[in-house]
Amino acid sequence: MEKIINNLSIDFFFLVVDQNLDIKLPQLKNFYSIYDPNLSQKNSGYLLAQKSTQDFIKKTIKSSGHQAAIIPFKPSAKIDLICKKNNWISVCNPAPLNRLLEDKIKFPSIIDKIPQIPFTIAPYTKKNIDNLLVKYKKIVVQTHFGWAGNSTKLITKYDPTIIPQDTLCKFSPYLKGYTLLNNCCLTSSGLLQSPPALQFTGLPEYTNNPFATVGRQWPSNAPPKIIDQVKKITIDFAQILTKLKYRGFFGLDFFVSKNKVYLLECNPRLTASFAFYTNIELKAKITPLFYYHLLEFTSPQKIIDEKRFNNKNIIGSELTKRDKNGVIIEKYHNV
User: Fold this and answer.
1) Are strands 178-187 and 248-257 parallel, antiparallel or unpaired?
2) CB 220 within 8 A of CB 198
3) d(CA 267, CA 147)
4) Interatomic CA distance for residues 85 and 218, integer angstroms
5) What percent of the chain has pLDDT over 90?
6) Global pTM value
7) Which residues contact 159 (CB under 8 A, 6 or more apart)?
């Protein structure tokens, strides 16, 4: 697969807005990371809009005679527009599709036939909070969008300072359990999925947010029946993505409580663990999902079944320490 990518008349440019999300792939001769530590706005669209970024891309493809392919961590309308204007390949899904799938209020209706924690969609008001607390004792509240758990709150009483009055929210009962994740790639010829990883959430030594993800571990050591549920939910969800014309890399988060698996959310893009997981795959001599992602948007390949899901060589753990704003400040790896 590396040979196929290296022989393409395409130069890949990965837009890095956080060094902790960068990936090093020296084996790909036509892969470049673009990073500007002095950027005032930490988003891929703003980075791509910079004259210095565009000059570098144009200079590189002029020298190589290749076409440019832009890889953002997260899609945006600005990236769609800039790529269209310059006739560059956008290695991501359209921004509106990404936003639809990341919307925590709309997502439950998209997966209505997939197991999910019971929920109520309603405005944030004292009456609604009081009624739900009688029913659930503790409730988890989510607003439309967020990252690293910053849109998720645990509520034990009504507090107008936590969320603005009348904000439309998703309310769920607080359950005890643990979380899993997997990384996947949906290609034109089928689905590839990683085995589930145990997700480390809310460790006080690494974050002040009880809902923030601070690491992951492969293997998950979850019971076989749980792993089977994760696999089936992922396959069922991929069918939904196919109908939405989604393709490429994505990640899913799951919650396990009383031996039942619930789908929590989809990260319809590259995930925070994608670079780390790619290193695990390379060490295990498995073609990375990220390679399939690159090729799906440039030169789709027939999937080769590498028995990835049950591969016992997929081993590694990672911890990420976050500051009070949720920004990663340290990473610890064991691959």
Assistant:
1) antiparallel
2) yes
3) 10
4) 41
5) 81
6) 0.94
7) none
**Distance between CA atoms of 219 and 318, rounded to whole angstroms?**
12
Rounded CA gap, 208 and 62, in Å? 48
H, E, C per residue of 141-202: EECCCCCCCCCEEEECCCCCCCCCCCCEEEEEECCCCEEEEEEEEEECCEEEECCCEEEEEC
CB 199, CB 216: distance < 8 Å: yes
Q: What is the DSSP string of 231-278?
A: HHHHHHHHHHHHHTT--EEEEEEEEEETTEEEEEEEE-S--TTHHHHH
Consecutive H or E run containing 203: none
What pLDDT, in 10s, does the model give residues 165-181?
999 999 999 999 999 99
Q: Could you give the CA distance from residue 335 to residue 333 in angstroms, rounded to a whole number? A: 6
Does residue 102 sit in helix, strand or coil? Answer: helix
Contact of 265 with 106, CB cutoff 8 Å? no
139 vs 125: CA distance, rounded Å: 14
Q: What is the DSSP letter of 303?
A: P
Burial 124-142 (b: 16+ CB within 10 A, else e): beeebbeebbeebeebbbb
pLDDT in tens, 308-332: 899 999 999 999 998 887 778 888 8
Whole-Å CA distances, 315 to 194, 218, 276: 11, 5, 11
What whole-number distance in Å separates Cα of residue 291 and Cα of residue 24?
13
Q: Is the pLDDT score of 144 beyond 80?
A: yes
Number of H helices and E strands in the chain, helices first, is 10, 16
**Boundaries of every domain in the chain:** 2-92, 98-111+176-334, 120-173
Helix, strand, coil percentages in the chain from 3-state DSSP, rounded to 5 = 30, 30, 40
Backbone angles phi, psi at 183, to 5 degrees: -105, 140
Domain 98-111+176-334 sits in CATH at 3.30.470.20
Token reading at 106: 């709309």
Q: What residue type is 211 in one-letter code? A: F
